[in-house]
Amino acid sequence: MTAVPLRLPRRLVEFTLDGQETRVPEGSTILDACRAAGKDIPTLCQGDTLTPKNACRVCVVEVEGARTLAPACSRRAEAGMTVLTDTERARHSRKVVLELLASSTDLSTTPRAAEWLKEYEAKPDRFGPDAARVNEEPKVDNDLYVRDYDKCVLCYKCVDACGEQWQNTFAIAVAGRGFDARISTEHDAPLTDSACVYCGNCIEVCPTGALSFKSEFDMRAAGTWDEPAQTETTTVCAYCGVGCNVTLHVQDNEIVKVTSPHDNPVTHGNLCIKGRFGFQHVQNRV
Amino acid sequence: MDLRFTGAAPSDAERAAVDALLGPPPSGWEGAAERTDGDLRWATGGASAAKDRRDQLLPALHAVNDRVGWISEGALDYICRRLTVAPAEAYGVATFYSLFSVKPRPAKVLHVCTDLACAARGAGALCGDLRSEFGEPGTPVEGAVWQESPCLGLCERAPAALLLRAGGGPAGEQPTGGTSRCSAVIAPATAPALAAATRSPATAPAEPPAAAAVPQAGDPSLVLLKRVGTVDPASLDDYRAAGGYTALRRAFALGPAGVIREVLDAGLVGRGGAAFPTGRKWQATAQQADGPHYLVCNADESEPGTFKDRVLMEGDPFALIEAMTVAGYAIGAERGYLYLRGEYPRAYERLSNALSAARARGLLGADVLGQGYAFDIEIRRGAGAYICGEETAIFNSIEGQRGEPRSKPPFPVEKGLFGKPTAVNNVETLVNVLPILERGGAAFAATGSGSSTGTKLFCVSGQVARPGIYELPFGANLRDLLGLAGPAENLRAVLLGGAAGGFVRPDELDIPLTFEGTRAAGTTLGSGVVLVLDDSVELPRILLRIAEFFRDESCGQCVPCRVGTVRQEEALHRIVDRTGAGAAEDIALMREVGQAMRDASICGLGQTAWNAVESAIDRLGVYK
Ligand SMILES: Cc1cc2nc3c(=O)[nH]c(=O)nc-3n(C[C@H](O)[C@H](O)[C@H](O)COP(=O)(O)O)c2cc1C
Ligand code: SF4
Ligand code: SF4
Ligand code: SF4
Ligand code: FES
Q1: What is the DSSP letter of A186?
Q2: What CA–CA distance (Å, rounded) separates A254 from A282?
Q3: What are phi and psi of B180, to 5 degrees?
Q4: B144-149 and B108-113 as β-strands: parallel, antiparallel, unpaired?
Q5: Residues of B in Cβ contact (< 8 Å) with A170
Q6: Measured between alpha carbons, how far is B91 from B73 in angstroms, rounded to an integer?
Q7: Going by C-beta distance under 8 Å and a sequence separation of 6 or more, which residues neighbour residue B63?
Q8: N or C: which end of chain B has fewer CB within 10 A?
Q9: pLDDT for res A4
Q10: Are B1 and A60 an interchain contact pair (Cβ–Cβ within 8 Å)?
Q11: Which residues of B206-241 are buried (b: 16+ CB within 10 A; e: fewer)?
Q12: Which residues of chain B, if any, have pLDDT below 70?
């Protein structure tokens, strides 16, 4: 979260969350309130550094008096509201959303997906062996990163990070419509022919592993990716005066990927190509 | 913004089409072929200028598509340079709309409706004939290609087809730029008629007048349809001689607050499907401190089986222009957008003509009727996307973004078009404002029943003797309406409200056609669709068509709808020839998916995509 600049303290909003009187700062989402209260609501398209897009609908909760369920990630808490997070109805929608996703996309690299599928007793197989899938081959356009849209849940986070919200590069957008919608460059051109500047900020926000470092992609393919064996070291990028934080993920004494802390008040997890991918010199052992 | 282009060059025709819309490029920065010394010294354009032009993206894509028939890399690049739009974004927008193609295709595209009303009246056989004559849909033959289409809004003349030809006016005429497509409506269609029209679009037989869709035309009891067929839709003088523009004069006499009061007194509720009180919407918009305020007329009419707005716009275009002026005045807007379905070429022509006539006479412009009120209207054409009729998707579409619905709150009255307070109203809703002002809100409210006041337009199609638009006072029941239209002998079911509506049985014809009456009966009036099916129709196939429609038209933004509509269609496919225990498992599966779509989808499309199928299962017992 952003370090708070000087301003008047925010007013508090009082509402009922699962029967408990709850007070949160004005402007907080229902999800903020849930997390503050220690409730675990599944989320996929929500990102701590981005404006909620509320596209995945896995976080829905019941707001008393509303015809439909509300996305916790974006609906703001209002005074007097009564919210129920764990009703039959909310759990049903979460379960079906997970089933719909798991039956059409590859969630094998989505953190926590397996756990949620189990928790909600989701059975993606019940749509049958002929259920349509996204069916995309990984796009390996260069040595830096891979776009494996078979794993994409279309959360829009990479688009928002590449475009308006962070990088202002607009190399990718959603193209097509409905089930055929895909993240794409213009005319589906390779990244190398697009406006991409390889900042990798899309990888930073991707919640599914659809976007990954080529190093990670190759190691997964070879079966050598071993997350528990990795260490993470946060340091300062040495290339320029901005002084971004970089977190080096190291396995067997090799840097396997680079992330950046989202709570950095200046960079919010964003890097440029040098900080993100320019780590080879660190491990040139001649 | 990092603009990077592929370097593909536009053809002369593509460049001319875009320049006809946007004017010649002011500098090399915006795509001029020659770079001047000045260009090399001063950079122009930039992100903030680009923001103001983004809404020209859809018109620019139309310009190229109308002229060339598809949008090439060079054309897309050129549009992006002209408007400072990132090519990836423009590509995302171009691929959102079904009337555009980013792959080469012939200039002539024949859209053959296979939707509900047409399916009930022979579209299947027609497509069979086309297959044997021209091959599978999508196969180019002799400079033309045919494709299956969702409802074309021509249901009274089913089966219907629409031919769009890029690049030319009448045969032999060389277009000079701008909108230059030619169109022909062939309905009711036969394969030979389609073949002839496709070969020579300019010589296709003329369409019957709009009044042909109004079996009651000329009946003195008509209110909304009274001028259709009796007043020349091309003549402002005729419109005025028939009482046109008295409502606007009355509006100026009442003042904006007075107009809103009349509309509140009249009890008018929206006719676009959601039945929201119009007066309250206007009041909420008028009260916003932020400005400017906008009016958007929703003329995207794409709900399968709906064609009332088309008949109003083709048959009485000045009425809509006048009504929009009144609405704009009431809510304090100086600008109105008329978002017109892309598949309505004749309505586009008639409305464009009406707009220029009204402007020429000072009925639009800087000083409307000399009352010191400035108001003008711009038509924006949709490009083949049902979802753009959703009230926030329409904003994104006008703004040059993908037509995806926004999440609410904030509501349009607060943050609508361009982020400003906006009232969105359906065509029929707006036209009701004229009788309200002419006769007074209370007199208007005297017609009708309960909280449904005034009259309602019904789009009757399917197996009836006299399909068309009927106007009846609220309170009439389904039996009365079918009595007028001449129902099928072996009535099997009636679909109320379109694909997002619900089926009722032949023994339920006493359902009053009011908002509360249909709600009490567990169904909906929706947009006024009354699709009549007899027992010659295979209901499971109709359901499958409904499911296909939602699968095709889902914007893809949210998971329950994007994937749920696909799973629903798959399940209906599996049980198309099954009943009883053989269908039970898939029905249970659809119920679960349907519940999640209804509860967790972002917008009305996903929320209603299971309604009609559910009603067919529960009310009609289709798979019993
Ligand atoms: C998927 C979808 C499509 C819609 N299409 C239309 C349409 O084509 N025309 C229309 O007037 N309203 C349409 N609506 C309803 C609009 O969202 C909105 O309620 C209406 O335009 C408001 O006008 P009214 O108050 O005059 O009815 C649609 C809604 C949804 C969810
Ligand atoms: S690639 Fe990743 S970040 Fe982008 S939409 Fe897909 S899942 Fe989201
Ligand atoms: S990541 Fe890029 S911007 Fe940040 S310090 Fe390193 S070189 Fe500078
Ligand atoms: S419900 Fe369907 S059409 Fe509406 S936002 Fe979601 S995906 Fe798009
Ligand atoms: S025009 Fe064919 S169903 Fe409406």
Answers
A1: G
A2: 9
A3: -145, 55
A4: parallel
A5: 1-2, 86, 88-89
A6: 9
A7: B17, B18, B20, B21, B178, B179
A8: C
A9: 54
A10: no
A11: ebeebbbbbbbbeeeebbbbbbbbebebeebeebbe
A12: 2, 45-47, 168-181
Give the best residue of B99, B599, B603, B608 to mutate against chain A (max A CB count within 10 A).
Answer: B599
pLDDT digits (tens, 9 = 90+) for A79-115: 999 999 999 999 999 999 999 999 999 999 999 999 9
- Chain-chain contact of B556 with A130 (C-beta, under 8 angstroms): no
Q: Which atom of ligand 2 is nearest to the CA of A153?
A: 7
* Residue B140: partners with Cβ closer than 8 Å, 6 or more residues away: B105, B106
Sheet of B373-381: strand order equals B365-368, B373-381, B333-340, B293-299, B422-426
Only one residue has tokens 């946060």, namely A234
What pLDDT, on the 0 to 100 scale, is given for residue B576?
95
User: pLDDT tens-digit profile of B90-137?
Assistant: 999 999 999 999 999 999 999 999 999 999 999 999 999 999 999 999
CB proximity B54 to A under 8 Å: no
Contact A243, A236 (CB under 8 A): yes
Contact B359, B236 (CB under 8 A): no
Instruction: Give the number of A-B residue pairs with CB atoms closer than 8 Å.
Output: 165
| Encoded tokens for A194 | 């697009």
Amino acid type, A106? D
Please give the number of the atom of ligand 4 that sits closest to the Cα of B562: 7
Is some CB atom of chain A closer than 8 A to the CB atom of B102? yes
Contacts of A123 (CB under 8 A, 6+ apart): A99
CB-based pocket (< 6 A), ligand 2:
A 152-158, 183, 205-208, 210-211
B414 interfacial to chain A (CB closer than 8 Å)? no
Please tell me whether residue A77 adopts helix, strand or coil conformation. Answer: coil
> Residue B339 corresponds to which tokens in the numbers above?
């978002």
Per-residue pLDDT reduced to its tens digit, A16-54: 999 999 999 999 999 999 999 999 999 999 999 999 999
Give the residue among B439, B474, B478, B444 at the shortest CA–CA distance from B456. B474
Which of B76, B563, B602 minimises the CB distance to A179? B563
ipTM over cut 0.90: yes
Q: Does B200 touch chain A (CB under 8 A)?
A: no
Residue B269: CB atoms within 10 A of its CB come to: 21
Which tokens sit at B473? 């006072």
Residues 6+ apart with CB under 8 A from B591: B614
Q: What is the per-residue pLDDT for B50? A: 76
